[in-house]
C-alpha cells in the first residue's frame, strides 16, 4: 500500500488505468452484446475521458471518505495488511461504481439522445458494474497493480 501522497498518486494513476480500461471494455461489451475489434476500438475511444473523470472522482471525492469509512468501520491501523487492503478496496469500489455508472449513463445519453432514460440507465448500470468491478478489483487489478507498483517503486524509494 502507498506510504505517502506521491506514492498514493502514482498508485491511483496505475489503478485507475487498470480499472477504467477493463470496465470500459466490459461496458461496451454489455451494451453491444459482442466482443470484437470494434468493441475494443469503441472502449479505447471512450477511455481517455472516462479515465480523467475517474481520476478526478477517485483523488478528489472518493479516496478520503472511503479510507475514513474503512478505518472507522472495517479495519483498524493494527489490522493485517491484507485486511486493510480488502477494507479500503471495498470502500473505494462502491462509490466509484456509483459515480462511474452515472458517467456511463451520461455518455450513453450523449450518443443516443435518450436523456429521459438517464435515471434508469444509471440505476441499471450500477449492479451490472458492481458485480464486475468488485471481484476484478479484489482478485486481479489490486494484486496486479500492487505487485507492479512495488516492483517499480520499492518501499522508501518515492520520497514524500
TrEMBL record:
Entry keyword set: Membrane, Transmembrane, Transmembrane helix
Keyword Transferase appears in the UniProt entry: no
InterPro entries membership: DUF2798
TM ranges: 9-29, 44-64, 85-106, 126-149
Protein name: DUF2798 domain-containing protein
